Amino acid sequence: MSTTQDKVAPTSIGDIPLTRPQLPSWAPALVAAISVAVAALPVVFLGWGLVAMVLLAVVLFVIALPAWSSSVEGSRKGKDRLAAALVWSGFGLAMVPLATLMWQVISNGVPVLSAEFFTYSMRNVVGEGGGIYHAIVGTVIVTAFAAIISVPIGVMAAVYLIEYGAGNRIARIVTFLVDVMTGIPSIVAGLFAYALFVLFFGPGVRMGIGGSVALSVLMIPIVVRSTEEMLKLVPGDLREAAYALGVPKWRTITKVVLPTAMSGIVTGVTLAVARVAGETAPLLIIAGDTDSVNFNAFSERMATLPVYIYYSYMQPGVPPEFGQERAWGAALTLIAIVMALNILARLISRSFAPKTGR
Amino acid sequence: MAKSIDVSDLDIYYGDFKAVEGVSMTIKAKSVTAFIGPSGCGKSTFLRALNRMHEVIPGARVEGRVVVEGQDLYGDQVDPVEVRRQIGMVFQRPNPFPTMSIYENVIAGNRLNAKKMKKSETDDLVESSLKGANLWAEVKDRLDRPGMGLSGGQQQRLCIARAISVQPQVLLMDEPCSALDPISTSAIEDLIHELKTEYTIVIVTHNMQQAARVSDETGFFNLKATGEPGHLVEFNSTQKMFANPDNSDTEGYISGRFG
Are B43 and B37 in contact (CB under 8 A)? Predict the structure, then answer.
C-alpha cells in the first residue's frame, strides 16, 4: 500500500502547467495579410483574375494559420483554428451569391425606379416609359387569394394532425401526402390549376384566381408544416388545465392552443406568402400576362410581377433597352416586397408572443 | 355543495397494461384525503380517474365504479366535460395560460365556456376567487399583467384560484407543492385548510409530513413488484395511519424503512 502511494505521490500544483504558448491576437490578421500579398503575385506576374486571387488567398490562409498555430500552440488549438477558418470561409462563400445578386439587382434596378414606374401600367406604352402598377396589383390580389384559400385549409389540417390524429393511420397518411406535396414542382401546380379551370370554363381560360389556386397548392404544405411544428410546442399542461376546468376540446383548441401558438402560425403564413409571391411558372400558365390593370381576379388575364419580369426581359420590344430596364426595376420591387414580408413576419411574431414580463 | 366519492373495485388500464388494480374507498365530503406511496404506484393515475382526466392519454380506460353522490361517473350517458366542471384539478406544475392576464386566467373557466357574465359579476368572481386562494393582496394592483410573470408559488395559487372560480364540488390536487419552496408550500397548505370548509379535497403528495399536516384521511398505495399494477394497501384516518397503521408495509413506508 505504501509503495503505491509513493509512486503516485501528489504532484504540487506547480508541476501541472496551466499556461501554454499562445499566438498573439493579431496573428490571424498577419496571416491574412501575407496570404493576400502572396496571392497577389500571380495576378501581377501571370495575369490571373480577381476570383483566382481570392481563392488562392483563402487556401493559403486555411493552410498557414493552422500550421503556425499547431507548431506553437499545440495540435488541439491548431485544429480549432482550422475548423474556425473553414467555417468562416464557408460562410463567406455562401454570402457571395447573395451579395452579387443583391448588387446586380440594385445597381440595375434603382435607376429605373420613379413615381411613374410605380403608378403607370404598360397600356399603350411602346419603348420608354410605362410602369408596373398593373403587375403589383396583380401580385397582391393573386397572393392574397392564395392566402385566403390555403391558410384555413392548412391550419385546420395541422389542427387535425396534432390535436385529433395523434399518430393514427389517417394522420400518418396525411403527413406523408403533405410531404409529397411539398416537393411538387411549381409548373405542375400551374398545370393542375389550368386543367381544373378548363373543366369549368373551357380551353384557353386565363384568370387571376386560377393563379391563386396554383399558388395555394404550393402554399398549403408549407402552412401545414409550420403550423404543426408550432402546435407541437404548446405544452400539454395547458390543454390539461383547460380540460380540468370543464372546457370542451374544440374550445380548448380555439381559445387556448391556437392563441398560444398564434405568433408562430402567423410567422409561418407570412413566410409562406413570401415564398409563393415570387413563383413564376404557374402564373405564366393560368394567370397569363396583360398590359392593363385588372382588379377582378375572376375574369380575364392578370399581370403579376414575376410574369412581367419574364416577358419584359424575354420580349423587351424594340428597342430592347427599355423593356430590360423595367424588368430589373420590377425584380428589385419583388425582392423588396418579399423582404418586407419577412420583416413583417418577425414583427408579428414578436407582438403575438406570449408575454412573461412582470 | 361539497360531495363525497364512493369508489368500488376500480381497475385502470393504459392499453393492455394494468396500472391500478382493485381500489375501493369512500372519500368523505368537506374533508382532505391524501394519497401517499412510492413513485409509479398509480396514485396520480387514480386521482385523474376521479374526474376522467386520464382519458386525455390515448388508450386509457377503467373498469369499476366511481360514484359521486349517487351518480356513476362512468355511466353510459355521462359527459366527461360535465364531470370536470364539477370536479376541478390542480396540477403538479403551475400552468397558467400564457396568453392571458391574471384577471383573465382566474375567469378562464367561465370565459372559455362562453358563459355570459356582467363586468361587475366577473370583477366580484375574480376578487373572491383570488381571496379564496390567498393571492388577492399580492396581485390586486396588477390584475392586467400576464399570469406568467408571477413567481412559482403565486402561479400555483393562481391555478387554484382558477380551479375554484368555477365552483367545483371536489378539488383534486396532484402534488401541488412539489415544485415550490417551503414558504409557498406552507401558504398552499394553509389554503387547503381553509378550502376544506367548502370543498372536498383529494391530494396526492410525496411528502409524508405534508400528508400528516393537511389531511384527515390517508390512503397508502404500493406496488407488489415492478411491472405489477399498483393497489391500495391501507386507507385510514391520518391520525391512525401515522401513529398505529394496520398494515406492516404502511408502517415500513411511513417510518422510512423502504420506499
Answer: yes
Q: State the pLDDT confidence band at A355, using cuts at 50, 70 and 90.
A: low
Q: In angstroms, what separates the C-alpha of B118 from chain A's closest C-alpha?
A: 20
Of A74, A89, A110, the residue at which a domain comes to its end is A110
Residues of chain B with pLDDT under 50: none
Mean pLDDT, to the nearest integer, of A28-41? 90
Confidence of residue A292 (pLDDT cuts 50, 70, 90): confident
Chains A and B form CB pairs within 8 A to the count of 91
In 3D, which of B31, B27, B58 has the Cα closest to residue B196?
B31
Looking at the structure of chain A, the number of domains it has is 2
Residue-level pLDDT at A3: 47
0.90 exceeded by the pTM? no
CA–CA dist A104, A328 (Å, integer): 9
What does the pLDDT read at residue A316?
82
Which residues in chain A are closer than 8 Å to B98, comparing Cβ atoms?
A: 238, 260, 354-356
Cβ neighbours of A251 in B, within 8 Å: 112-114
Give the mutation candidate from A168, A237, A245 for the B interface (greatest B CB count, under 10 A).
Answer: A245
Q: What is the pLDDT of residue A179?
A: 92
The whole-number pLDDT of residue A97 equals 93
Question: What is the ipTM for the molecules in this complex?
Answer: 0.87
**CA A121, CA A332: separation in Å to the nearest integer?**
17
Residue B70, domain CATH: 3.40.50.300
Quick one: what percent of chain A has pLDDT higher than 70? 95
Rounded to whole angstroms, how far apart are CA atoms A70 and A274? 47
* pLDDT tops 50 at residue A250: yes
Domain that includes residue B248, residue range: 5-184+199-254
CA A308 to chain centre: 22
Residue A260: which CATH number? Answer: 1.10.3720.10
Confidence of residue A125 (pLDDT cuts 50, 70, 90): confident
Domains held by chain B: number: 1
Taking CB atoms and an 8 Å limit, are A259 and B99 in contact across chains? yes
Please tell me the distance from the alpha carbon of residue B153 to that of residue B174, in angstroms, as a whole number: 15
Decide which of A110, A133, A153 is a domain's last residue. Answer: A110
Q: Does A259 touch chain B (CB under 8 A)?
A: yes
Determine which of B55, B78, B112 to mutate to test the interface with A (most A C-beta atoms within 10 Å): B112
Alpha carbon distance, N-terminus to C-terminus of chain B: 37
**Per-residue model confidence as pLDDT tens digits over A213-237:** 999 999 999 999 999 999 999 998 8
For B149, the closest of A243, A247, A356 (CB atoms) is: A356
CB distance from B154 to chain A under 8 Å?
no
Residues of chain A contacting B176 with CB distance shorter than 8 Å:
none
User: B183 touching A, CB under 8 A?
Assistant: no
Report which of B3, B163, B2 is spatially closest to residue B67, judged by C-alpha positions: B3
- A13 within some domain: no
A43 and A180, same domain (yes or no): no
Only one residue has cell 387514480, namely B46
Range of the domain at A176: 119-352
| Three-state secondary-structure class, residue B223 | strand
Q: Which DSSP category does B67 fall into?
A: E
Residue A104 cell numbers, joined: 446586380
Residue of A nearest to B94 (CA): A237
Tell me the C-alpha distance between A78 and B116, whole Å.
Answer: 70
